[in-house]
Write a structure and sequence with these properties.
The complex is a heterodimer of chains A (506) and B (445). Chain A has 506 residues and is mainly beta. In chain A, 8% of the residues lie in helices and 52% in strands. The chains are: A mainly beta (506), B mainly alpha (445). At the A-B interface, strand 2, strand 3, strand 4 and strand 33 of A face helix 3, strand 5, helix 6, helix 7 and helix 8 of B.
């Protein structure tokens, strides 16, 4: 409620405002350590948090304050939180019943899960121990852009995907309940004789699907690809697919979950090939029930006439690949797959740098170009392909090893694509797919823009927001469905402001 | 003394800076920006000259910062000038100065501020502000006279200077400096200690402010009692202002009445409340909450009324009503809101006036078309959020929230449909109104 000031002479200064005498300088000011959006499983932003350091306390503890804003930027809560000075915030999410913060305590060697319920009450902290090697490996992965990620499961809990190094490099998938039920962990252990990494394809209310890649040696071109699905309640495998079970090697990129089934989509390889050395043969789609029974598999080869339309539309030279970021089911039963085109080539800059004595981590790069929307019917027959022009962006590969497809999966993990996220508005039968576009404009300066490709009850449209305007620069952050948060920085006036804007569906 | 000289709402019309909406002419600088900026400089200079005693530099600094604030406000078109409004309340000033000639000072200026919240202010240098919101809220000369007397009392009792002195003295007190120094040196717990320190200082300053409010009430009542106005109204005015948070923005728009035109039917989903929020709470959950009552700059209403010891007011008693004041003030507020793209306020004010001032329907229809056009253009350019906030689930202003929801929820295509039907309906009667026709062109091209 606004505080109405009635019949008051103007009090010309405030404690923290007008007369900034040295006496008051620095008092009551807190360091902002972290901030972010609280997103749910549909990428809808339910609010924002800001994490401040308030006070140093004895015994190596810090008092932190967490300020919460709702999805309209209204302040709704400020909570005090006490913890060690060695904690770092790794992720925060909202699952409808609880806001969960995942902290990594570098001294105590554990993850701490701190939840706040819908009354703003802090729940009992859950901890998960890690080893020194796990910590070292995690910090190394973070340096290369890969993050520990929390996934919300509606009204039930959260899944944490983190890094583990029992002997070889590995991974950890842990379920943290918010409803009082039991948690579980599924992780690599000392007996695992392979380095294993995973890429989470999707997390639903009942299951999590990820792609697991194992290698005996980091430099080996031989490896094992598996698609793993775990039951969210028990942590047990619902299925593990590899060349033995499907006669192909599958590189799953997306998983979508419905009441009684889940859809998996990705690229498939020959059984003797793998993502490290081979080229994918095409796109596959599978449908499973939650007992692991497959009800459907369809493969569409890249050579198939169904992809002719894509080949006609693509105007990039060379062998282009497609990375499928998401697949959305609309009210009429159709599926829309959101893809981004890329190629892999040598980076002239990196090679030149090496020639001059530099040591770049890789000499290849991914060149990311146009966006494509593929429309499938309920049986996954391609109905339509639309290309959406985007400017080219080049991103150095994390490593030169591996096929373009594998490089793309790694690029996805570190956020190297122009694609940002897709929001699904079930109520209005809409979705919004957002990209950053570096637009090349003839006879004018290139401009960075946010590009939205939108679906509204069967009709596709686009919207665009330029991210520079005169002396003003914009940074885009996620917001509630169908909106974006614009942080506006005016270089001349040195002011920062923020406002929420709706994307325009024509 | 000729009261015309005292009421310094200058009535010059500037061709370059005036806004003319048919018969209603208003400006944001009264046609002479330099004159006002020079005036602000002059009164600030006088204020600084009068500074005496210790810490002169710091006190002058306060007034210097006040001047910067005033100049910024003026340049941001915060003040509004309109002949008709000035004339409507001229009589109030005439009466106050007739019965209290010692209060009459030709250098005084009372400026109307576009703010829709009922309020008034004194700067301690001869400059006073009256919000349009106050003139939309009070209907009688009696109520407005009491408010003006209250502000004059602040000036003549030197409250502003005393508050500045009090603040600077506190800031420079040995105890406070020692305490601040100690807190800054603290290895542990310095953050919260700093907050407590600032809280304590704020409480003390607010408490001093509340005392001066009671003094201004009493002295202002003295001046007011000499006028012809109903003295019981003083407490009535305080009581009304005390209930402001319940009364303000209490008008519910009849969306269908306003927008159902031709075959267009207003869509209820546009004002539907949003879904789940982060927390189930009616107020901000705050582990660091400050006691709001202790921070209030004015005493609670009951105490103020008790202090004045007014007799109880009867609705049948004679008061001096100002015909058309509320409508005019709301009209100007709406126009200012449109000019500043505060479109949610504009819709609210236009809707009320459409209801109570039906003779001026065409004026308000043209304005509503203009608002719809602005919303359309700002949405197209993704700039609406700079001017119109998102709704707040914790706000008590449910009807204003509803308007905000409408503005934010409506898609461009739906807005175009609405704008088309609305402007087509009124085209015949408003085809010679250039503001309306601009909107008509936008929605019907």
């Amino acid at each position: 409620m606004r505080n109405l000031i009635v019949l008051v002479f103007v009090f010309l200064f405030t404690i923290s405002g007008q007369s900034q005498t040295k006496v008051l300088e620095g008092l009551g000011k807190f360091k902002l350590k972290n901030y972010g959006a609280l997103m749910d499983a549909n990428n809808d932003v339910n609010g924002y948090y800001m994490f401040y350091e308030v006070d140093k306390l004895k015994g190596g503890k810090i008092e932190y304050a967490i300020k919460f804003l709702d999805n309209n930027l209204n302040e709704v809560a400020t909570k005090s939180y006490l913890d060690s000075k060695h904690v770092i915030l790794v992720d925060a999410k909202f699952n409808g019943a609880q806001i969960m913060f995942a902290f990594l305590d570098k001294e105590s060697l554990n993850y701490k899960f701190v939840g706040f319920d819908r009354k703003g009450e802090q729940s009992k902290t859950i901890t998960k121990s890690i080893t020194k090697d796990d910590l070292k490996y995690t910090l190394l992965q973070q340096k290369s852009g890969k993050e520990v990620v929390l996934y919300p499961i509606k009204n039930k809990g959260f899944i944490l995907n983190s890094f583990k190094k029992p002997a070889k490099m590995g991974y950890d998938v842990t379920y943290i309940p918010s409803d009082g039920t039991k948690g579980w962990t599924y992780a690599t252990d000392k007996t695992t004789d392979m380095h294993k990494t995973i890429n989470v394809a999707g997390v639903g209310e009942k299951a999590i699907v990820f792609y697991e890649y194992g290698q005996k040696s980091l430099f080996s071109k031989e490896g094992e690809m598996s698609v793993v699905t775990l039951n969210n309640e028990t942590g047990k495998e619902i299925l593990r697919n590899n060349k033995e079970t499907t006669n192909t090697n599958d590189l799953v990129s997306n998983a979508k979950f419905y009441d009684d089934s889940m859809i998996l989509m990705g690229e498939y390889f020959k059984p003797e090939d793998n993502a490290l050395k081979g080229k994918s043969l095409g796109l596959y789609v599978e449908k499973y029930d939650y007992n692991g029974e497959r009800t459907y598999r369809k493969e569409v080869s890249w050579e198939d006439k169904l992809f002719l339309e894509f080949n006609k539309l693509n105007n990039e030279g060379g062998r282009p690949y497609l990375y499928f970021h998401d697949i959305i089911k609309t009210e009429d039963g159709s599926y829309y797959a959101i893809a981004e085109q890329y190629t892999k080539n040598a980076s002239g800059m990196a090679i030149a740098s090496m020639a001059m004595g530099g040591s770049p981590t890789s000499v290849t790069q991914l060149v990311i170009t146009d966006a494509y929307i593929f429309k499938f019917d309920s049986d996954f027959n391609i109905q339509d392909v639309k290309r959406y022009d985007k400017g080219q962006s080049k991103v150095p590969n994390v490593s030169d090893f591996g096929s373009p497809q594998l490089n793309a999966h790694v690029m996805k993990q570190i956020g190297g694509f122009d694609y940002q996220y897709t929001q699904l508005d079930k109520k209005n039968d809409r979705f919004y797919a957002l990209f950053i576009d570096y637009e090349r404009i003839k006879s004018a300066k290139d401009k960075m823009a946010l590009k939205a490709i939108m679906y509204n009850k069967g009709v596709m449209s686009e919207d665009k927001i330029y991210l520079t305007e005169g002396k003003t620069e914009f940074v885009v952050r996620p917001a509630k469905i169908g909106h974006v948060l614009l942080l506006e920085y005016n270089r001349k006036k040195k002011t920062v402001s923020m406002h929420i804007e709706k994307l325009n569906i024509q | 003394m000729n009261s015309k000289k005292l009421i310094v709402f200058l009535f010059l019309l500037s061709c370059t800076l005036s806004f003319s909406q048919e018969s209603l002419v208003y400006t944001y600088d009264n046609g002479d920006k330099k004159e006002y900026l020079d005036y602000f400089e002059k009164i600030t200079k006088n204020q600084k000259k009068s500074v005496d005693g210790d810490y002169r530099g710091q006190r002058k600094d306060v007034y210097e910062k006040q001047l910067i604030g005033l100049v910024n406000k003026f340049n941001d078109s915060t003040y509004i000038f309109n002949d008709e409004l000035s004339l409507k309340i001229k009589g109030v000033f005439d009466e106050i100065y007739r019965t209290n000639p010692e209060l009459n000072d030709p250098s005084f200026r009372f400026l109307f501020q576009t703010n829709v919240i009922p309020n008034a202010a004194a700067y301690g240098n001869g400059l006073f502000e009256i919000n349009l919101g106050l003139l939309s809220f009070f209907e009688t000369e009696d109520e407005i006279a009491f408010v003006i007397c209250h502000e004059l009392a602040h000036y003549y009792m030197l409250h502003i200077q005393k508050n500045v002195d009090n603040y600077i003295e506190k800031l420079n007190s040995k105890d406070l400096k020692e305490e601040a120094k100690t807190i800054k040196k603290m290895e542990y717990g310095g953050g919260k200690a700093g907050v407590e320190f600032l809280k304590k200082l704020s409480f003390e300053l607010s408490s001093y402010s509340r005392e001066t409010e009671l003094e201004a009430d009493a002295k202002g009542f003295e001046y007011f009692s000499r006028t012809k106005y109903n003295h019981k109204v003083a407490c009535k005015a305080i009581e009304k202002l005390g209930k402001l948070e319940e009364i303000i923005f209490e008008y519910k728009i009849d969306w269908h009445k306003i927008f159902d035109r031709n075959d267009y039917v207003f869509k209820e989903y546009l004002i539907e409340e949003e879904g789940m929020s982060l927390f189930d709470s009616d107020e901000v959950i705050d582990d660091y909450k400050w006691d709001k009552d202790s921070l209030r700059s004015h005493p609670n209403t009951g105490l103020r009324i008790q202090h004045l010891a007014c007799s109880s007011y009867d609705e049948s008693e004679q008061v001096y009503k100002i015909q058309g004041l509320n409508n005019l003030s709301r009209k100007l507020s709406a126009l200012a809101a449109i000019d500043k793209n505060r479109l949610h306020l504009a819709i609210y004010l236009i809707a009320i006036n459409m209801d109570v001032d039906q003779k001026e329907e065409q004026f308000y229809v043209a304005r509503m078309s203009q608002v719809l056009q602005r919303i359309y253009e700002l949405k197209k350019d993704h700039k609406l959020g700079k001017y119109v906030p998102q709704e707040s689930s914790l706000s008590d202003e449910i009807y204003l929230n509803e308007i905000i929801r409408f503005i934010n929820n409506i898609d461009l295509s739906e807005l175009k449909k609405l704008g088309q039907k609305y402007t087509q309906f009124y085209h015949d009667s408003l085809s010679d109104n250039h503001i309306f026709m601009q909107s008509f062109e936008i929605f019907n091209k």
